[in-house]
Amino acid sequence: MATELDEGQKAEVARIRARIETLIEGHFATGKSAYYLSQLGNQLGDEDRKLLEVLTHTKISQFVADAFDYKIGRSGQHENILYLIAPEGTAVPPVAAPRYNSRFWAAFKVPLAEGERRFIDIKTLEFAAEAGQLSSHGDTIREIDAKFLPEGSDVATPDVILSHIAEWLDAQHLEQGPFLVQRNKQHLKQESLLTALINALDKDQLKRVSLPLDVIKTLETRRL
Question: How many domains is the chain built from?
């Protein structure tokens, strides 16, 4: 049975609800027809998002669905990327989500251990906890800040990973093109062993992932 909230807790829920309403209205006021819930969560901030989840025992997506009258659309290969539809908009999904190279995607999906950092070579897409562990050096090495990564036991959903990648690329002044899957026949028919491995692991197993760079290279080049 859910615990009854005291007056202070109710006030906090009301405050966060008002913030969410302001964010939604402000987003749609710019003329946009859709608002990704992952983007809403990022703009709300970790502190208020986590507090809302603790007080209401629901994720922000469910809270928005229950507390507001906006229609919710779905996109993505598995229809697991949720977005709000503008009141005057149509139910046409936003532009299809980009498909990133599996090694690049893994750099943002594998949880970050406490106290660890993550660096990536934007040419080879190798990533490691220390820049010196990468085979290249110089301008091709960039850090992925912890705010763009799941931590500890957290497992980011695809829409959150997409949002983090977009924000990181913007912060690094990089175009997304070089990191997208090259849509040739081989990629369309088969996925790499690296992709299959990452998709098969649960959140506890992902926490323990630590593969040597040569193994990552091998898994990326081998097809199912």
Answer: 2
Q: Where are the beta strands (DSSP E) in 91-145?
A: 119-121, 127-128, 141-143
What are the residue ranges of helices labelled H in 30-59? 37-44, 46-56
Residue 39 lies in domain? 7-85
pLDDT at position 159, please? Answer: 79
Report yes or no on 188 lying in a domain: yes
Residue with tokens 């660890």: 116
Q: Are residues 81 and 113 in the same domain?
A: no
Please say which residue of 85, 115, 146 terminates a domain. 85
Per-residue pLDDT tens digits for 99-156 = 899 999 999 999 988 889 999 999 999 999 999 888 887 889 999 999 999 887 777 7
Q: Say if residue 217's pLDDT is above 90.
A: no
* Domain co-membership, 116 together with 35: no
Q: Which of 212, 23, 184 is nearest to 126 (CA)?
A: 212
CA distance 139 to 143: 11
Nearest alpha-carbon partner for 85 in 67, 70, 98: 70
